[in-house]
Amino acid sequence: MDVTTLKQQITSKTPAMIYLALGTQQVLLQRVREMFINLIPKEERVMNVGSYDMETTPLAVALDDAMAAPFFGERRLVLINKPYFFTGEKGPAKIEHDLDSLSNYLQHPEPSTILVFLAPYEKLDGRKKIVKELKKVAVTVDTAPLDEAHARQQVRAELTSDQYTIDETAIDELVQRTNADYELMNANLSKLKLLTYQDRHITQQAVKELVPQSLDENVFDLVNAVLKHDQPRSIDLYDQLIAGQQPPLRINAVLISQFRLLLQIKILSSRGLSQGSLAQKLKVHPYRVKLGLRTVRQFSLLALENAYLGLFNIEKALKTTQRDPRLLFQLFMLQYGQQQGIGMS
């Protein structure tokens, strides 16, 4: 189930005894944590809420807490953070975890305890016996990074619950400026709500005023200008990055990274990989793949290769000479425009 469904479930009926929140989206993991803590009355939390980090605390300590009866309350909540023993990862050698006791607990959980595993991992090791046992009894909550569609949906749902409205163009702008990274989108919502507190309506202009474009997003505009041989636009964008106190080596490194990604997308998409498969294989956000696919359809493989190699030459010059970065970029644009095979694919 997703986080929204979890909230509906645990507030409308008796919670299950064991939950597993699995995924690397920290804001969703934190939200799950807060949802469960809110089930315990404030005056009871000191005695009836326990939180244990498996990288620093033996599992036996958390299980002892889980098996204890609530102290003057109906429920006890035990949160187990970073249970790396469910994965193939190795934890601190000095910490020993009694997985046999956990296996016994999973078969005979304490009815008055809610045991929640907060697992900030992409996946668990399904070959492990303890993982198979966990999946049989635990309610799994998906806290994986949200794709663009679900990030938009989550933003709308959160604003609606706080009685705010948002224009579609404003969401589009927010997605663009954060590369559809829900972590960044969520971090900016508090500022947007504060700005629009009186009328409780978020416009595109509000997003433009408050949400800064990431370096990757600015560089993406530069990449497109380079590929279109728009020298005035390319140099103007480059100058803006320099004026924004971005180090030339860092700008160039991000440019190289963007062109590397475009090359990978161009080659792999020609082999029939879908957008989702590309995102998974390249380990990048699906929104970046979506934008990349839109770009590579317009340009040849040779055009991408020439730009990629030209930027490597800039990097070498930046590291070995004292030449002006702006001049190096201008020369790159001139040479790139003169190369054969550049253009529409």
Automatic annotation (TrEMBL):
PANTHER family: DNA POLYMERASE III SUBUNIT DELTA (PTHR34388)
Keywords: DNA replication, DNA-directed DNA polymerase, Nucleotidyltransferase, Transferase
Family assignment from sequence similarity: Belongs to the DNA polymerase HolA subunit family.
Alphabetical list of InterPro entries matching this protein: DNA_pol3_clamp-load_cplx_C, DNA_pol3_delta-like_C, DNA_pol3_delta_N, DNA_polIII_delta, P-loop_NTPase
Organism of derivation: Limosilactobacillus vaginalis
Organism ancestry: Bacteria, Bacillati, Bacillota, Bacilli, Lactobacillales
GO MF annotation: an example: DNA-directed DNA polymerase activity
Enzyme nomenclature, EC number: 2.7.7.7
Origin superkingdom: Bacteria
NCBIfam families recorded: holA
Residues in DNA polymerase III delta subunit-like C-terminal domain copies: 217-336
Reactions this protein catalyses: DNA(n) + a 2'-deoxyribonucleoside 5'-triphosphate = DNA(n+1) + diphosphate
Identification of the protein by name: DNA polymerase III subunit delta
Gene3D superfamilies in the record: 1.10.8.60, 1.20.272.10, P-loop containing nucleotide triphosphate hydrolases
Domain DNA polymerase III delta N-terminal intervals: 19-142
